[in-house]
User: Fold this.
Amino acid sequence: MHVIVRYFLCNLFLLFVVFMSPESLLGETNSSLTISLLKYFQLNDINKKSLLNPNNDILVLRKSGSVFEFNANYLLNIGEAFKFTAKFVDEYSNVNSSGFLNERKSDWYFNNWYFNELFFSVAFSDRIFLDVGKEVLNFGCGFGWNPSNFLEKYGGYYRTGFAFDDPDNNPYGVSLAKLKYYGDKISASFVWLPRINIDKKSKAINDYFDYLSNPNNTNLCFLQNSIVINGLNVTFLLGLEEKLYKRPEQGFYQKFGLSGSKMVGNKFSLHAEVGLRNGSGKMCPVKKEDIYELEEEESSEKYYSSSLIGARYFLSNDFELLLEYYFTGKGYGKKEAQIIYQGLENSREFYREFAYFRLFPVAVNTYYEFANFRRNYLLSSLLRNNINQVMDFRIYNHLCLDDGSGFVTCELIYRPNDRLSFEMLLGFPWGKSNTEFGMFYNRYCGIFKVLLYL
Amino acid sequence: MAQSITFSEDLQNDEKFIKNLLSILERNQKASDSFTADLIVKSFAPSRLPLEASLKLYVKGQDKSLAKFISPPRNKNNIILTVMNNYWIYFFNIRKCIIISPKQQLFGEVSNADVVKPPLIINYDSRLIGKREENDDLIYIVKLVANNDNAPYGEIIYHLRKKDTFVLYGEFYARSGVLLKRVFFGNPLYQEDRVFAQSVRIVDAVNPERYTIMEYRNIENIELTDRMFSPTYLEHVR
Assistant:
């Protein structure tokens, strides 16, 4: 109980600031508040117990994790020309962002807060807009993966989990300046992610600044063009990223992205994405931790590509099927993968101490490339909305085509009213040992989440 | 109100009237060529509490509409867009737009195509299948049959009152011929060249106790720009 009291006291000030805005002076305020309570739990060798049995103690297992998430979306329109957008996130948890459990009894929970978004938008006319600040950028039309995304690393976590439209799956915002132009048929954006490198004496302050601003370690700029022709929505991305540190004389990495989606008839839609870049197998900007890796493996001459093709079929008003094939372009071959998986298998004792965080053992996936180790993947999904007006059901299967392992995710959403939502998600990895998903055989895991919209 | 409206000689002429039925229906779908309105949607079913949503509607010409959710809080600021026969939904929380089907259920018995309406003229062929008299009014019964795969319904039957061209009643059929919903129109708003239903009751064909009421309020004729009806522009719609 003391945890909850402390948590709400911490946020009382924020509530006051966000919701006591002088609306009458500044114009229209459009704010929303979502409070989420998430409970992560990992079930291991206890599958004889019924998950839904209220008398068992699954939810308080030591290997489970609890996260209170407090999200405040705040949009303030100031006159016709100015707009201020902020999204505040406060996580109060015993699972840190690396997936470790905090086991110190005296300080069981710790608190992370940050602005996922905090930017001003200025409208010079109804055609030209400028955004400055920390903003979330979303690219591509893929549901499981976005190979055309220059900023994929900022997504943080692999998307499987609650539905893609869940704000908790939102990528992290990045510090940027964005100039947007909307023509009658085509729109274009020029985006600059400046290199931000503030070196403070205190490591704690430095780390916290990184956490708040999510800065780049390189200059990255790109041009984004979008056009809609007969319902075909095409986006083209062209980016240049400054090369890092030890080789500044070598100029820029080049990056290209192309994505498009179209409805065929009124039941079937197709979407596709392609990403192409040189110098690095990664599409995203290079982060500090990647530097050493890059020094060893980068080749400026070589181009890497990844691609995705997908289809959705609307079976009826409520049923929807999704199929998506993803080619990573630079995954590990069979022999390399076997070495990695064997190594992980041998150190299972060590990894047992990790908690699942957002379903996936991030410990094995330091660079967030889980489900990207190999080359060919297939995502299939069945969505059933409105089972009985208040309940939705979704099931996903991620299949690694290279080794025949997979991960099934089932999601149930219950919405008793407009302001409350209960969501439960269970994940089951399957496949032989020494395969991408099979490493976690004999395990299953889940998330229980309560959402309150204010 | 209805009596004060005088229709052109052409419309009074039976032959031309029947010939122009589809364009009359098309016009009557929209309050004007460019307008905004508040849309209140209430859904009722015996097994649950009533659901309610409110949206801000922007309509331009025959083929462009968008609806922005004002409530419920869960959907606030999400936008549904249609241009011709293409549909998108914009998720405010993740600032992302995806393609959707016109047949997908939006709220209660209401599908996307019932709120942001595609043009009838390019999707349907029409013919007169009957006439009847009701309270001394002549009612035409018009059948619309889909002529392409993009049309949201296989067939639609409209009952249209001749004297003011107001559509009183409609039946919406799937391509298989199954009756999906019955629609009752009311509260006519008489504009210069059309009559627009400000109240629409959509009743489930299988269970008549499940129904949804849509009410249009604060209709304003405003000249809207074409560019706001683009998937990339939706984040700027206020």
Notes: Chain A touches chain B through 55 residues (CB under 8 Å). DSSP finds six helices and 18 strands in chain A. The first strand of chain A starts at residue 29 and ends at 44.
